């Protein structure tokens, strides 16, 4: 597979997402901080797993080394969240997922551009993670706030990386494809749900 455009300087989580999460989501999230921390640990694990899947399926990709570094960073974040769970005496356990990841994964096979779609979806997930971690950091204790502000910056970088990867595999602009997935992501999040997760609906 050829490498085309190698860098997008116009992509950030703000430009990627169609809508912003209401502040009310963060206020509710703080009321369920134990579940949010557990869910966050699972999110980091899944993020590493998704990148590992890309390496397994496409070992020839020119950005495999970057994916490997991203995996290590995600697992460091996973371990950091586990330390907070231990600090707050919260048991790490299985948790009912919001369905967000499953929904977005279902869009990957929408056409024959599976790899590019997968990368864009990962970028959108990182963008939403970035946005919500920033919102969450405004309502938690100072220790957690500092932690989530640092993660906010990491998620922003991961978002840009995935979009760069996707664009590098296409000779044409992928903006329309990004927009299509971002709209679907926004529509899914607009539904009502009593479940509070990092990627739960905010309708």
Structure description:
The chain is mainly alpha-helical and 203 residues long. It has a single domain, classed as Ferritin, core subunit, four-helix bundle (Ferritin), CATH 1.20.1260. Helix content is 67%, strand content 0%. The protein contains eight helices and no strands. Helix 6 crosses helix 8.
Number of helical regions? 8
CATH fold naming: Ferritin
Spatial gap, N to C terminus: 40 Å
The fraction of residues assigned to DSSP E strands is under 5%
Summarize the model shown:
The chain is mainly α. The protein has helices spanning 13-16, 23-31, 33-57, 64-87, 100-106, 114-137, 142-168, 175-189. Helix 3 (33-57) runs antiparallel to helix 4 and helix 6 crosses helix 8.
What layout of secondary structure does this protein have?
Layout: H1 13-16, H2 23-31, H3 33-57, H4 64-87, H5 100-106, H6 114-137, H7 142-168, H8 175-189
Helix pairs in contact: 3-4, 6-7, 6-8
